[in-house]
Design goal:
The protein is of the alpha+beta class. It is built from 22 helices and 52 strands.
Length: 1010
């Protein structure tokens, strides 16, 4: 992948028509207009629509859309604004829905014929998105995307009402905080890497036809969305430079390449305004392409505007604002479009919307539907894809390849690869040793190859494979009655009750710890997990699952040595279940959620039937090798709506790794989870550590391929692995520059750096060669020779980083500009070249609100990771020098250089940003021209609080700097009520750092010193 290669752009080829065809088209349009005027344009029966122009494939997409839009009634168009667009029988038009989840394979959809019930796919499950990202292989992601697109078409062929072709993937939110619950859904903390991979995945799903779409990929979630805590009410503070340079990048790249066909608005607010009504959706996002985009809201977002966000008083106002902001489809109220239809009607009646606003949104949706081939007689070039495309042998092989490419070798002191002799004894232990987990955005696994399965298959019948999950098996004996808690022995389990006379299998539970003391309980009699599901408790769950994950507990030891059991399903479940969090025993012996405190809870004696660590150690003793598989349960350890509280691995799992390694030093740790983890301790515990995401149905085979050397690992980390939670700010703080986070700004010592990953081979890099040592408006090619100096074939991921040495503005320590994954035979050398365009080195100049390439030496660094640079060069970039900031004309307050305190807020509900300040806060505008003599300070301000306050202008320092003057700010009666205030201030010849310093609560949108 070259730095210059803008992602593949798929354009529409010029159409060549004969004069006759042009005349026919013109006459048809005139006839249509005449018929519409006389009310005769609409056919009386569906079969009559077959000859209508919107079904004519010789016409352009725009012409077909124009025709169809003109035939729709206002009521039909309003109904099309909802996620579930109803059928129009009189035109022979079927229903249409936005939204089939396809993050790492076709996952699930909702069925409008069954009240919106979730229907789960059973096709090919590829590695989680974070795993696909760790391949650093754009070509692979395009092949995976193509497979997913074909399978989406296959499901659509089976049930087009449920399985829509507007797919909600990929997720491109940059992973700036590894604690974010949806970390598993993204690719990387780097915008360029994310954008490149997303372009490939979306491009594969989109298909390679210049006009038609195999599917219509929708990027999630625009923009500034990483925290799940209070996700609909927290506001991401995105100063302009960071939004342009970082947060927008992975959205912009796939849309510029015409690989994606729209965005989904995120749940959060940005600078005080809900993204559902952000004008950026209709203005900035649409400016990135000439193609028509179909933008959608996330689920329930329209209602959040009048609910949790309390941004509008009525749904009519909210829906009108959403449409005007550039959103075309409302994902809300499940399959019921009634509230949306009613609100839009009301908005029209109140003059909040015009029919033209509705037409614009419907036109966008119809354009995508035409491009999907819906109105073509044969369904278009992808119309013949059917159910035979689902779960093919080819796709299964691709799943194994992707899972293998994704694995990252973090540590290796010679322990890997393992010897594959058939008479070996290998122990595979750990809570994830013999199971596979799916996640919220995964389809059902069509089959499962667990790590233990993969090792068995690889070694064959002659080897001995010992397996232990390494978890305790316990029995709980209720103190008052002496009875054991039991579940059912059949596949459906039974209501848990304290009715057992002994600790037989029905009374035995395997305890899986997932961190923070949270455990799941699996009954030994039927291998099912205990769940609540609004009561009663039953052992009937195949794995922890569901939106509220009601299979979570804590075993809390009391001072007398007994235990109480706390149910810790998500807090929202608590609210629905009432105040009681603790388990009690009813008079009939059933286990209930009946106590608010531990003092009121039932007391249990915990009997350890099987010591998990001891069993795992026994399996490990004397083995030729031990593979201990630890990690996460995706429904528990961070997911949508649930951020991780810590980067730590569960303590019980750490004890297992260390204990097994003590029993057998030939232990390899496999970490299977979806995010960075603080595992610096593992370097001292085991000789090798291998990381994988939850990698789908072929996890075990792919793992065995790597463990035994059939595949030489070459995955690379796409996030910084921090040493401690203390290295990170609060999860809702998005200023990576100010906080020094991600590899671009973090100057600490991570456990593993961005781009890190080891190999069974070694690679040498030559000196960097440049096509020119000077860049002045033209591209420069950066080349390096890479040689495999090892004794086996392997992949190397060659990475190009840059650093701008001098600048008016703080610059990243490193920025990824190009990468390429190459395969080399032993002794083979290949030249890897990257083409740098001047625009690649641009950054956002807040003083003028535009991109700028500054004159500066540029450090070029080529290597195997961001902290493993093998070759360097310097490029003399000749651009421009940012002039001193001019303050005579009005300056947007949000275009500051630095700050203390402050909040970025909405200037008005429709558009504009402002800055909210209070006493102790300040804003800095660096290197500004103030001018000598007396000056006038003018500001647009708002103050909701009663009484006046002041805003000071200082130079040099916000507290001790010279005071140029003070302006009085009156109460304006509201945060959106702005007034212009002015005051005479002293001049200051030359250039200065200018500070705005308030003495009380106020908002500033613009100011000048003239």
């Amino acid at each position: 992948m070259t730095a210059s290669a803008s992602p593949r752009r798929v354009g529409r080829p010029p159409r060549v028509t004969s004069l006759a065809a042009t005349l026919i088209s013109l006459l048809a349009s005139l006839l249509t207009a005449t018929l519409l005027a006389t009310g005769l344009a609409q056919p009386s029966a569906a079969e009559d629509s077959a000859e209508l122009p919107f079904r004519d494939t010789t016409l352009s997409v725009a012409e077909r859309v124009d025709d169809l839009l003109a035939r729709l009634t206002l009521e039909e168009k309003i109904a099309m604004l909802h996620q579930y667009q109803p059928a129009i029988p009189r035109l022979g038009i079927a229903s249409f829905k936005t939204g089939t989840e396809a993050l790492h394979g076709v996952a699930w959809t909702t069925d409008p014929n069954n009240g919106g019930a979730v229907v789960t796919a059973e096709g090919t499950v590829f590695p989680q998105a974070i795993g696909l990202g760790s391949t650093w292989d754009a070509d692979l992601l395009e092949r995976v995307g193509t497979a997913v697109g074909k399978e989406a078409r296959g499901y659509h062929a089976q049930d087009p009402a449920a399985w829509g072709l507007n797919v909600w993937a990929p997720v491109v939110d940059p992973l700036r905080d590894p604690r974010a619950g949806r970390n598993e859904e993204g690719y990387s903390e780097d915008g360029f890497l994310t954008g490149t991979l997303a372009t490939s995945y979306a491009g594969g799903m989109r298909g390679d036809d210049p006009t038609y779409l195999m599917t219509a990929p929708t990027l999630k979630h625009y923009v500034g969305y990483n925290n799940e805590v209070d996700r609909t009410t927290t506001s991401a503070q995105l100063r302009p430079r960071l939004q342009h340079e970082y947060y927008d990048v992975p959205f912009r790249m796939p849309i510029q390449a015409d690989a994606a066909t729209g965005v989904m608005t995120s749940y959060n607010l940005v600078n005080g305004r809900p993204m559902t009504v952000s004008p950026d959706v209709g203005e900035r996002v649409r400016s990135w392409t000439d193609e028509t985009l179909l933008n959608v809201t996330d689920a329930a977002n329209p209602n959040n505007l009048v609910g949790s966000q309390d941004y509008y008083d009525t749904l009519a106002e909210a829906d009108a604002a959403t449409l005007k902001a550039g959103v075309d489809s409302f994902t809300t109220d499940n399959t019921d479009n009634g509230p949306t239809v009613q609100a839009v009607r009301s908005a029209l009646q109140q003059g909040l919307l015009t029919e033209a606003d509705i037409d614009r949104a419907v036109r966008h949706a119809l354009t995508i539907r035409v491009r999907l081939g819906e109105f073509d007689p044969d369904g278009g070039p992808y119309g013949a894809i059917d159910a035979s495309a689902i779960g093919t042998t080819e796709h299964r092989a691709l799943a194994r390849e992707a899972a293998g490419e994704a694995m990252v070798l973090l540590e290796n002191d010679g322990a890997l690869p393992l010897d594959a002799d058939s008479d070996r004894t290998v122990a595979v232990v750990g809570p994830l040793a013999d199971t596979l987990y799916t996640d919220w955005y995964s389809g059902s696994l069509p089959y499962e190859v667990t790590p233990a399965d993969g090792v068995r298959e690889h070694l064959g019948d002659g080897a001995t494979v010992r397996v232990s999950e390494g978890v305790d098996r316990i029995a709980l004996r209720e103190v008052g009655t002496g009875k054991y808690v039991t579940g059912g022995t059949g596949p459906e389990g039974a209501v848990l009750a304290a009715d057992g006379a002994d600790a037989g299998p029905a009374a035995q539970f395997d305890v899986f710890e997932w961190g923070e003391g949270v455990v799941t309980l699996r009954n030994a009699a039927n291998e099912k997990y205990v769940g609540y599901h609004w009561g009663p408790f039953r052992n009937d769950q195949a794995q922890p699952n569901g939106w509220f994950v009601q299979q979570q507990f804590k075993l809390e030891e009391q001072p007398d040595g007994t235990f109480v059991v706390r149910y810790v399903g998500y807090e929202k479940a608590y609210d629905w279940a009432g105040p009681n969090h603790y388990l009690t025993v009813a008079d009939n012996g059933t286990i209930e959620l009946g106590a608010a405190t531990a003092d009121q809870a039932a007391r249990f004696e915990k009997e350890v039937v099987r010591d998990g660590l001891a069993e795992a150690q026994q399996a490990a003793e004397g083995a030729d090798a031990v593979v201990v598989v630890v990690g996460s349960m995706p429904f528990i350890n961070g997911r949508e709506d649930h951020d991780r509280p810590s980067l730590e691995l569960a303590q019980a799992q750490r004890r297992l790794v260390e204990g097994v390694a003590e029993a057998n030093p030939r232990t390899v740790m496999v970490l299977e989870n979806s995010y960075p983890t603080t595992i610096g301790w593992a370097r001292d515990a085991v000789p090798a550590v291998l990381w994988t995401s939850h990698a789908g149905q072929e996890t075990g085979n792919a793992l065995a391929d790597v463990l035994f050397g059939d595949r030489n690992p070459a995955g690379r980390l796409t996030q910084t692995w921090y040493a401690s939670d203390q290295d990170l700010p609060h999860v809702t703080d998005y200023d990576i520059l100010r906080n020094g986070t991600t590899y671009q700004y973090y100057d600490g010592d991570p456990v593993y750096a961005f781009g890190h990953g080891l190999s069974y081979s070694t690679f040498d890099y030559s000196a960097v060669r440049l096509s020119s040592t000077t860049m002045e408006g033209a591209p420069v090619t950066v080349s390096v020779d890479v040689t495999n100096t090892g004794d086996r074939a392997g992949d190397e991921v060659v990475q190009l980083y840059t650093h701008q040495r001098t600048s008016r503005d703080p610059q990243p320590l490193k920025s990824l500009r190009g990468f390429e994954r190459i395969t080399l035979e032993p002794g083979e050398t290949r030249t890897v070249s990257f083409v740098l365009q001047p625009d690649d080195l641009a950054h956002w100049d807040v003083t003028r609100g535009r991109w700028v390439v500054e004159t500066s030496p540029e450090d070029l660094m080529v290597g195997a990771a961001s902290d493993d640079i093998r070759a360097r060069a310097t490029l003399d970039v000749r651009g421009e020098t940012i002039p001193p900031r001019r303050l005579r004309e009005m300056v947007r307050a949000v275009d500051f250089d630095d700050y203390a305190g402050v909040r970025l807020v909405d200037e008005a509900k429709a558009a504009g940003d402002a800055v909210a300040l209070d006493a102790g806060d300040w804003l800095l505008y660096r290197d500004a021209v103030v001018g000598g003599g007396k000056r006038t300070f003018t500001a647009r301000v708002a103050r909701a609080a009663t009484g006046p306050t002041t805003l000071q202008v200082r130079v040099g320092h916000p507290v001790t700097g010279r005071l140029l003057g003070t302006v009085q700010v009156p109460s304006t009666g509201g945060v959106y009520s702005y007034t212009t205030v002015s005051a005479a201030v002293a001049g200051a010849p030359g250039h200065h750092d200018v500070y705005l310093v308030p003495t009380g609560d106020l908002r500033v949108s613009r100011f000048s010193i003239g």
